Structure formats: structure tokens, C-alpha cells
Amino acid sequence: MARHHHRLTHAVRRPAALLALALLPVLVLGVFFLLPVSGMVARGFWVEGDFVPGGVVEVLTRPRTGRVVWFTVWSAGTATVVSVVLGLPAAYALHRLDFPLRRLVRAGLLVPFVLPTVVVGVAFLELLGESGPLGFLGFDGTPVAIIAGLVFFNAAVVIRAVGASWESLDSRPAEAAAALGATPLQVFRTVTLPSLRPAIVSAASVVFLFCATSFGVVLTLGGTEYSSVETEIYLLTTDLLDLPAAAALSIIQLLAVVALLAVAARLRASADPSVTRVPARPRRPARADLPQLVMTGLLLLLVAAPIVTLVLGSLRVGDGWGLANYRALDSTGSQQALVVPVTEALATSLRTAVDATWISLTLGLLVALAVTRRSRSRAERSVRTVLDGFFMLPLGVSAATLGFGFLITLDRPPVDLRDSALLVPIAQALVALPLVVRTLVPVLDGIDDRQRQAAASLGAGPLRTLLTVDVPVLWKPLLAASGFAFAASLGEFGATAFLARDESATLPVVIFRLIGHPGAMNYGMALAASVVLAVTTAVVMFAVERLRVPSLGAL
Asked: What pTM does this model have?
């Protein structure tokens, strides 16, 4: 009887401890995620206090809404296909081959993913504009420019996600097929591709998600002529003040994105467990690897072209060259385009990124510790599964939708945060939270629980066990997660565009305002500010890459 009572107490205590560990993240997500999202949903269905579900239907039947939804699906689908086609050869070359400067090339292809979207938009404007190197193609202001910007970002996702899977495949089946006379193409089609298919489909679904919810690239390169669901929510809110219509679109987007995340999770779970996963050492390239190396070089050129054009454009002053655009960053631009100088906006961005980083890291570490605890009962396993899905919810809501939700719900008692300095950092931390969690969870999952049990049997308490077993393994991923969160915060534009005040605007918001004001000085300042922001995020990402901690593939 006593033993049964002890087991029952233990079975209740462990789920309770799990919930206690996750209490702070649950409270934060409840206030700063569920409350804004529920307020957004309510704004779509309730108009002036009356339940009017027909308003959502009315928004969906608008001709412009149909065009916006179709453009979102078409552009995201096209960009996904191109990203996969360009990313697969690079994934093979960077994860299965060993050649000079391989790590440098891999880091260079990763940088675009964390570059601020508005910076990429400005870079492609400079590259494809009438006076740009590729202006003769006539792509400026067309869907081609938008798709190019989306591919620029998301080829890195394919490289990291598929490359990590490719790197762990056992090479012996492919070698055996080649020894039996199969051509390289036949080996890939019959042996390698079936093993990689879950990773490819999962990466493609994530890329489609990122493309469909892209904000800065579409807003900068498409304006109002080519609008996605994401930018349409912004325009309806800021320009037309049609909050019910914006809420209706947000609901549709939320449902679509959550469904896509569920499909991606199912595809990841469907990976064949019988496939041998043996980390393979990269080998020296052979003649048969030349096409993959050429494609990798081509992708590197496509990535470098807009960045190089941006840097050169920032140095052009009239018909000559100079640093006048950079010296003007301590001004407010021509015709008072800004309320604060760009240098002050950069300082605001750095302070905001520091706050967003410690918030997302604190929450992410607690979440990772909670969802990686070994389940010893059905109740504990159920609680852990629910918590894991709950903490990934921010990935299912776009940054612009989250910012919109903040705008309409956190502006009255008892939660009135309109003047809080932490409002923007909290929004950015929620955007970075899934990335932090997916960086830490695989590492904690890989720690043998028997080491913790051995430490506990020797008298170590939970804190001592954490310090002696988990921390030595976790410190590098923690640094990497901090770098990803910091870089993501520096470039975050979707939520911040709704929330940032003119006197406390971050650098991405200031850059967008500069390109929206006419004048050569304002445009030159936008180019220079974009370079400063790009260099800052690139330095952070090169430091993260040196830690060799995979993260994008885990999403």
C-alpha cells in the first residue's frame, strides 16, 4: 500500500514539476501571444460589440482579397521550388565534400537568412533598379524581383535542413549501387533521394511558410501593386484603418499557417527510422561532383550580387565616390524625413536586441528543459506533448499579425503597455523564441539521462546535476541561440513596424521610412544604413557559424 502511494505521488509530482518549470513561459505566451491573437480574432468577428461573422466572409469575397491570396500562394510556391532546386546541389557540396574555404562559403550562404528583410529589399532595389547593374532586365517592381528576394533568403534553409540529413547518411548503399554500374544520376534517384525525401519535403514546407509570411521583401519590392496577405494586413491597418478586414485576413492566415506547420511536423515524423544515420566525413571532390560545385558557386554569386551592389551604392555620391552617405547618418535626412538620426536608431536597435535576446533565451531555455524531460508516465508524456506544441505557436503567427494583435489588445487596463519600453523587445523575443527552442532542444535531447541519474545517486541536487551534466554540453548552443536571437531582433520588421514610435524607431523601420521619402540624400542614407545593419548581423552570424551548432534544420 505504501509503495502504491509512493508511485502515485511520484506520478503526480513529475507532471506538476514539469508544469512548474514551464509556468513562466506559459504566462508570458498567455499574455503576449494568446491575448493578442484572441483579440485579433474577436476584432474580425465582433464589430462594435455585435457578433457579425459575415464580415469575415465579406472580406474574403472582395476581388482584391482573391488577388492577394493568389499572389501569396503563387509567389511562395515558385520561390520554394527555385530555393529547393538551387539549395540541393549546394547542400551536397557543403556537407559531403571537402574543399578550400568550405566553411567560409557555408557561412556566407547562411547570412542571407538572418539579414533584415528591409535590407534585402533595398539591396534588390539597387540591383534591379533603372540605374542598377541589372536594370536593363526590367525586373524592378515586378513579381520576379519579389521571388528573387525570397529565394535569396530561403535557399539557406534548404542547405541547412537537407545538408544536415545528407551529412548523416550512410554512404555505403550509394557506393554499392555505383559499384554495380549505376550512374551518379541513377544512384541519386534510386538510393539517395528516397532517404532524403522527408528532409526535402519538410524543408520545402518550411520555406513555403517563410515565403508566404514574408513582410519586408514584399512590402519593399512590391509596394501596393503586388501585395501578399502579410503586407495587406499592414496596409489595411496603417493606411486604410480597416481593422475588421485586417483581422479577418489575419484569421485566415493563422489557420493556413498552423495547418502547414502540422503538415511539416507530420512529414518530419514520417522519416524512415530504418535509414542508417552514420555521420560521414567529407571527401575530396571528384570529377562527377563538378556540376554541384558549379551550382554552389552560382548560388554564391546570386547571393553576393545584391550585397555587393548595396555596398557600392552606399559609396556612390553623385558622379563620384565617398563616405558622405555614412557621414549623413547622424542627421534626420532631407526634408526632415526622420524624427531621430539613423545613429540613434541603431543604438535603439542594439538596446532592443539585447533585451529581446535575454527574454527569448530565458524563455527558450525553460521551454527546452521542460519539453526534453524524460517522460515516465502517460500523464507526463501528454503534458510534455501539449507544452511542446504550445510553445511552437508563435511560429504559426506572422510577425505582422502579432504586432497587429499587440496594437489592438495591449492598449487598455489591466494590460496597458503602450508606453512600455519592453513592448517591442517582447514582441521580437516571441518571434525569436521558436528558433531558440529548436536550437536547444536537440542538444538536451541528446544528453544521456543516465548521467543525470548517476549524478543524483551520488547526492547531487537538481541544480548541481544541471551544472555538472547539462551546462558543459549546453553552453555552445546557448551562445548560438543568443546569436540567432540577437540577429533576428536586429532585423525584425513585421511586428516592429506596428509598434515602434517615431522617436524610438529601430533601424529597419528607419530604413523603410528613408526609401519612402524622395531625395538622393535620403536614398543614399538608406543604402548606408542598410550596409551598417547587414554588417552587424553578418558578424553575429559568422560567430554563430564558428560554434558549429545546427538550428535551421530543426525548424
From this structure: 0.77
